[in-house]
Amino acid sequence: MVEYLIFLAISTAIFALFSLGLNLQWGYTGLINFGHIAFMALGAYTTVLLSLQGIPLLVSTVIGAMVAAVLGLIIGFATLRLRENYLAIVTIGVGELIRLLVNNQELPVNDTWTPGAFGVQSYPIPLSTTPHFFVRLGMMGLLTVLAVITLFALWRWIRTAQKSLLADASQRLSKKQELASRLGVGIVFAVLITAIYISGMISLYDYKPAAGLMLLSLLVLAVVFWRLEILVRSPWGRVLKAIREDEEVPKAMGKNVFWYKVQSLMLGGAIAGIAGAFFAWQISAIYPDNFQPQLTFDAWIMVILGGSGNNIGTILGAVIFFTYDAATREFLPKIFTNLSSDQLGAFRIMVIGLILMLLMVWRPQGILGKKDELTLGK
């Protein structure tokens, strides 16, 4: 049970990170990206191949993120001066192009050229060996600090909604709904943080490599989330929101709309590239088929579920998605014993599609999204 919780925590952190990059591009800037998986694939392969050449993992990951950002730059220069429909078409094509190129090219693996279809295995993974006892104690302390800071940030987030309710009586009903949403989300996150913290402490003390990877992925997710929250509240972020709503307005104010869009694509791509490195480390062997277009649409589900243009909502969407995924994998075979594995897979996709349809009717802005910032109608 502890190992499975850690696996789910790593998966959720990786795809929350992946989806945060998409949320920056779509939720804040209004850029339609159906090939987000291309950034993850580039980040994963660049990090893995460089680490096999003896380059430190941190440097390899940074270079992987930079390569993914360069892809965003190329896509931006190729499409952003055209109608936004072209961006959607080009990105989904680029996602498949990257996968097919890797599948049909030879890659430098362990001083030999190996066909990409054979995949890449036996590459360095961070914290894969048991560290010294005092290092493990430091990691446990770091996990404790991370859990306390997260719980404190959740409390402040809920308190902000409560203060807003008391200060603005004119919109009392909407403020009450927002407070109720934040309170419910806060409780869910608090329970999950507690479960992950206990599992992590057990696995760090009696060291399991997955626990080290979980700690690292959660730390990176926390740092990226923190910096994104600062960015989207800065003048730069307000320009992105203005572009999303009506790009003619920032143009009239003298803003270089094209360059802001390119920056959003590049930064979102870099974040996805970092997620790709963690994805490669989690699965321990990467193949081109690991980067199917379905993963892009999984990220879209997470963003839409939580609420586009809301970073906390994106993380919530990732939590809901993996909770649903784990629950249906566990219980559906026991309920529908007469269905094959392929039929169960199709049924799971059908149910989450139905959930999205109901959500679009009930709350088209997502669970934590704001209706006045809705971009789905663009």
Automatic annotation (TrEMBL):
Coiled coil stretches, renumbered: none
Main location: membrane
Pfam families: BPD_transp_2
Position of the signal peptide: none
Membrane topology: Multi-pass membrane protein
TM helices/strands, residue ranges: 6-24, 31-52, 58-78, 85-102, 133-158, 179-198, 210-228, 265-287, 299-324, 345-362
CDD domains per record: TM_PBP1_LivM_like
UniProt keyword terms in alphabetical order: Cell membrane, Membrane, Transmembrane, Transmembrane helix
Compartments, record wording: Cell membrane
Protein name: Branched-chain amino acid ABC transporter permease
Source species: Nodularia harveyana UHCC-0300
